[in-house]
TrEMBL record:
Protein name: Peptidase M20 domain-containing protein 2
Highest rank taxon of the organism: Bacteria
Ranges for domain Peptidase M20 dimerisation: 175-266
One family name in Pfam for this protein: M20_dimer
Organism name: Arthrobacter glacialis
Length: 390
């Protein structure tokens, strides 16, 4: 029997009550993650702490460690035929801690799961939380898609803290590459002609990239850095290494931009005689495709919480949640940490992610996701659409 608007309101109230009763431990979990940042694929404390919090939810079924990923996690509550998946990220940035606010993301996912637990069976829902490692540098969600951890999902969602309130993010498709040039060392004064300068090769490649940017298509980006190149000023560097990223509006454009990067890197090797090694670092991230109906529902619920969201106004960054969106209806809204908040991946952003503003985003994000799940389960048209995709 379809749920009435009154029963939907009742379920929303029950979800809010459950979240409010458990909010202190949700926020404590966020702060604990923030104080103990762990890099991608090494989030051993984070996944253990998340598993403990989830195991305390009545009726929850929790498994930490999935397939080849020891820091991945799955938890489910309810046994209904409609499966809604909430994604939690908890990896930190090298040298910057939680300057992308993944402590907020994980806590909001936990909060939404807790909120939905008392109403899941009444709504004909299975609520699934997936702990997804290494969003920053390893594409954990892509690997989890490949090993079947998302199987059975009808829709997926997560929120991301930021410096603006937007209904959806507009990330680029992205690929990363580790670049190494191998030359031959020699004394830079006594016998430089005997050397093959790996730093020169990298310099030529960087110059080529700088010039090639003039002819890149709209939406294409190439950027990178040198990690190491030489050990002493009087020695011809026999090795130079760095990492480069290519971004574009979609994976087709990304392939064309990657061909430009490859030519630039080849130029350094050709000009100097150094040997180039160019290896893709992690999986390709696709462009994000958000589900319009889910975006509308989340926006309406966020507005009810006093946080109206604007349409996306800028493109930037990349996320492996985009790969999920190519397989399942997905949303990925951004929720602001407040006026004057620095941008993500700024060291100051990490401070705000553990502040009262961060805690407020956890509440708003968790409840808006929970209410959106209630809407999807309550509306017969949405249930039919999600469970019987064209």
């Amino acid at each position: 029997m379809p749920l009435t608007s009154q029963s939907t309101s009742d379920h929303n109230a029950r979800a809010e009550q459950a979240l409010r009763a458990n909010l202190p431990r949700v926020l404590a979990f966020s702060h604990k993650l923030h104080e103990n940042p762990e890099l991608g694929f090494a989030e051993f404390q984070a996944v253990q702490w998340l598993a403990q919090e989830l195991a305390a939810v009545p009726g929850a079924r929790v498994q930490a460690g999935l397939g080849s990923l020891p820091t991945a996690l799955r938890a489910e509550v309810g046994s209904g035929p409609l499966v809604l998946t909430i994604c939690a990220e908890y990896d930190a940035l090298p040298g910057l801690g939680h300057a992308c606010g993944h402590n907020v993301i994980a806590a909001a996912a936990l909060g939404a799961f807790i909120a939905l637990a008392p109403v899941a069976d009444d709504l004909g829902l299975t609520v699934r939380l997936l702990g997804t490692p290494a969003e920053e540098n390893g594409g954990g969600k892509v690997l989890m898609l490949e090993q079947g951890d998302f199987a059975g999902t009808h829709a997926a969602m997560m929120i991301h803290p930021g410096d603006v309130d937007e209904l959806e993010m507009l990330p680029y498709a992205c690929a990363g590459y580790k670049i190494q040039y191998f030359g031959r060392g020699a004394h830079a004064s006594a016998s430089p002609w005997e050397g093959i300068n790996a730093l020169d090769a990298m310099t030529i490649a960087m110059t080529a990239v700088g010039l090639a940017r003039q002819q890149l298509e709209p939406g294409q980006q190439i950027h990178g850095y040198i990690d190491s190149a030489g050990t002493a000023p009087n020695v011809i560097p026999d090795h130079a290494a760095g990492e480069w990223m290519v971004r574009a509006h979609d994976v087709e454009s990304l392939a064309r931009a990657t061909a430009v990067l490859t030519r630039c890197m080849d130029a350094g090797a050709l000009a100097t005689g150094a040997r180039l090694e160019m290896v893709q670092h992690g999986p390709i991230y696709a462009e994000l495709r958000t589900d319009p109906a889910m975006v509308g529902l989340f926006g309406a619920n966020s507005a009810l919480l006093g946080r109206p969201l604007k349409p996306a106004g800028r493109r930037g960054g990349s996320t492996d949640m985009a790969n999920v969106s190519h397989e399942y209806p997905t949303i990925h809204p951004m929720i602001s940490l407040g006026e004057g908040c620095p941008g993500i991946h700024d060291s100051s952003f990490a401070d705000v992610a553990a502040s009262a503003q961060g805690d407020h985003v956890i509440w708003d994000g968790a409840l808006a996701m929970a209410w959106t799940c209630v809407d999807l389960a309550s509306d017969p048209r949405q249930r039919l659409r999600l469970m019987n995709p064209a």
